[in-house]
């Protein structure tokens, strides 16, 4: 009897893990789908001691690098419509990726807290309190700015306030 | 006009001009920076100032023109935000001001008005200028100022009632 | 009371004088129109106007910070001193001949040292990752701050506001406003 209930419990946990991971996969799948396309830059950041040290050197700001230690994952897709190419390959990729982002990413699970529309600019910023990992938050930026496309996903033990402080910290050191 | 003269005649206007700039730009810090530039402009125009019969009116006009230029240069954009999320999770010094909920609503409603209406309201209701003075500063007719003032007052009321559901019974 | 209605009418047409408006504010402030802020009591229809006038009063007191004048005069005197600066610059160039050579030598030494240390750990790929990640985070951060700056400032255009925009004269505005008021109270 006991063995059976343990088995059931085990399967239940396994199933839950698979379901939960499946949700996460919508994001991973999307980014990996476009990771090797011409004209698209894909960056997948997971902290490692070497990388964190590099970050610290680059920012030259203790507060900023401390905050970044709480970030567990960053995924980035950027693409540019190139000059003459706008009507051709890179242009099509650009639009495809953007439209796909709106369809495939789990936007329904996030809350949109900012949208900017201005001519050729359409930027959405979304926010989510992660259910799977307590206190972790997720941020999603889907931005089409003229000829530049950026899709960025961040997960970490950082909140809006913390992330908001970053540009001020960086700004002080003349990073931009 | 030398610096000492400037300090006596123009600098005392700084707070009034600042309030006007802030009303137009809808931004405290932007207005602060703008005021530095506006004062420098006025300093550079000090010879014109000397010849002008009304230094105050001239200064207001310079302020207005400078701010309108900034507003024009900023691209027109639609920005939608979800205030609830932000207010709960960001440090917002404004939230700790003593202004009551009602006053915040009024502030928001005014910010929503078109520039000219905001400006006329500021000049009339807060700075207390007469219609004639306002017409002079804006280089327009008295009749036109009345129309803008009328519209501003009506729209402000309308925004409070319709958009912000200013409902007497709630208060 | 008829008096008040008449003043208000003209107020919303932009026809009142400063004295009349002053009198209106006084009446409202002295509670002579039985405006009450207690919840649940029958409010006077001038409660909204009272809020507006209170707001305007508080706005009169807004001022610039204490350091404004100092910053300004610094800038103004900078403009006077431009010529002086160029003189000082050329002086420095002349004097620093030997010092400059020394500095450059030291510089090279330091750079070579640093380069060695740095290239041990990170691949080019890593460096690119770091750069992109920092840029991405900063971009997000900027947008978060943008959103925060706009709290209370902006809103979505609503239909009712369109009606005001489309009204072509003061009477239409008036009717619209006072009809709404009628429904509310």
Number of strands of chain C: 0
Q: Topology as H/E string of chain C?
A: HHHHHHHH
Q: Report the sheet-strand fraction of chain C.
A: under 5%
Helix content of chain C: over 70%
Number of helical segments of chain A? 5
Total individual domains of chain A: 1
Summed over residues and divided by their number, the pLDDT of chain A gives a mean of: 83
Q: Biggest interface and its residues per chain?
A: B-C, 63 and 57 residues
Helix-strand makeup class of chain A: alpha+beta
Largest sheet data of chain C: none
* Total of helices of chain C: 8
Query: From the helix content, strand content and strand pairing of chain C, which structural class follows?
Result: mainly alpha
- Uncertain spans of chain A, ≥5 residues at pLDDT below 50? none
Q: Which band does the percent of strand residues of chain A land in?
A: 25-35%
Q: Which term fits the overall shape of chain A?
A: globular
Which labels suit this protein?
heterotrimer; A: 176 residues; alpha+beta; 5 helices; 6 strands; C: 185 residues; mainly alpha; 8 helices; 73% helix; 0% strand; elongated; disordered C terminus
Structural summary, described in words:
The complex is a heterotrimer of chains A (176), B (171) and C (185). Chain A is an alpha+beta fold and 176 residues long. Chain A has helices at 2-33, 49-59, 62-68, 89-104, 160-172, and strands spanning 40-45, 71-80, 111-118, 121-129, 137-145, 148-156. In chain A, 45% of the residues lie in helices and 29% in strands. The radius of gyration of chain B is 18 Å and the shape is globular. Chain C has 185 residues and is mostly helical. Chain C is 73% helix and 0% strand. Chain C is elongated. At the A-B interface, β3 and α5 of A face β1 and α6 of B.
In short:
The complex is a heterotrimer of chains A (about 180), B (about 170) and C (about 180). By secondary structure, chain A is of the alpha+beta class. Chain A is built from 5 helices and 6 strands.
Layout of helices and strands:
The complex is a heterotrimer of chains A (176), B (171) and C (185).
Chain A lengths: L1 H32 L6 E6 L3 H11 L2 H7 L2 E10 L8 H16 L6 E8 L2 E9 L7 E9 L2 E9 L3 H13 L4
Antiparallel strand pairs in A: 1-2, 2-6, 3-4, 4-5, 5-6
Chain B lengths: L2 H7 L4 H12 L2 H17 L1 H6 L3 H19 L4 E4 L1 H7 L11 H11 L3 H12 L4 H8 L3 H22 L8
Chain C lengths: L1 H11 L5 H12 L17 H13 L8 H28 L1 H22 L5 H26 L9 H8 L3 H15 L1
